Amino acid sequence: MTSMTRWLGSRDFFRVLIVSLGHLVHDVYTSFLAPLLPLLIERFQLSFTSAGFLSFLLRVPALFNPLIGSVAERVNLKILVIISPTLTAVGMCLLGVVPDFALVVVLILLTGVSSSFFHVPTPVLLNRLAGRHIGLAMSFFQIGGESARTVGPLVAMAAVAAWTLEGLYRLIPLALVMSAGFYWVLRDIPPVPPRAAHRVAGAILSTLRQDRRLFITLTGIMFGRALSAGTLAAFLPTFLTEQGESLWFAGVSLSIVQAAAMVGVLITGTLSDRIGCRRLLVVLSVAAPLTMVFFLLSGESMLIVSLILLGLFAFSAVPVLLAVIQRRGFDYPVIANGIYMTLNFLMSSTIVVLAGKLSDMVGMATTFTWFAVASVVSVPFALLLPESRTRPE
């Protein structure tokens, strides 16, 4: 019996499956915001700037991912993984019953904090459960997250259709069951042994100095992606309702994009091993603005096609960017990944707020057009991306 066969039949593999299922359940709730934005705008008479601010709040706790990762290496954060599905569900599902916008802000911020505390320590737990099979374990984990972004908008629209926005709280029990499942499978895993303390600020600065050119070029690429994929992820349902589409179709459109993105992620991850990350990122940096322009010009007959193309090209660069980081041979690879995640969230959040402000001033269709053209800024940065120092196995 091989090591792989033994692990697939082990309790640890079962735990990995439960954690991956928990990733799906957790991220289903965080994916509610975009399809619910049109309803929140109508209910609280929000400007597009305020709507963009909500998307910013959902992401802003990720700025502290490197710090959370450092803490996760020293203390037992298992309890945070266990309770995070419930906290996230409460934050999102009570949006329909709070009486004013200030409480909406509090709930969105709670959801963002809960999401960070779920995503940062969970890979540490998976590493302990999977051992030498960590790659396979992370594949299951990522499938859970990508599936959630496909299913989540459909769940949100179905719940609103059945119970109205005020009835979303009926979905909270599913998260309670998931938290109970987490407790059941993780309860006897001992705390992570404390690791030797290191100066977080010093390690971050050392990592930045180790490859300044890489982080500069990645920032440019992520800026272009934020103008296209980041804006669409936050405002696609709102944009379509502004264009006269039904709320149901607007929610489904986001699921179509995310389903296509799942296929795109599989393709780009494989291609990056064959043709190299830089070459593939150049192709995606050119294709993303073109597909966004095609989407803006598409009529009813080509709308579905344009959404699929957006998912395939504008939303599929993440595994390539992650591969770039992992192949650079950093002294602190976890911190390097945390820096990338922080830059990515900061870039996308800032652009979303800017998109909301411009939409109030000149209209969302004009803003989308400007951003589609401006997103070509990622092309020269992709061309300047340094070659990988290490080759994939």
Please outline what is shown here.
With about 400 residues, the protein is mainly alpha-helical. The protein has helices spanning about 5-10, 10-30, 35-45, 50-60, 65-70, 80-95, 100-120, 120-130, 135-165, 170-185, 200-210, 210-240, 245-275, 275-295, 305-315, 320-325, 335-360, 365-375, 380-385. The chain has 2 domains: about 5-190, MFS general substrate transporter like domains (Growth Hormone, Chain: A); about 195-393, Growth Hormone, Chain: A, CATH 1.20.1250.
Instruction: Report helical residue fraction.
Output: over 70%
CATH class of the largest domain: Mainly Alpha
Please identify which CATH superfamily of the largest domain we are dealing with.
MFS general substrate transporter like domains
Structural class: mainly alpha
> Stretches where pLDDT falls below 50 for ≥5 residues?
none
Number of strands: 0
**Per CATH, what is the topology of the largest domain?**
Growth Hormone, Chain: A
Alpha-carbon distance between the two ends:
25 Å
Fraction in beta strands = under 5%
Total number of domains: 2
Mean pLDDT: 83
Rg is: 21 Å
Series of secondary-structure elements, N-terminal to C-terminal:
HHHHHHHHHHHHHHHHHHH
For the largest beta-sheet, the strand count, sense and barrel status come to: none
CATH-derived architecture of the largest domain: Up-down Bundle
- Characterize the overall form: globular
Q: Count of helices? A: 19
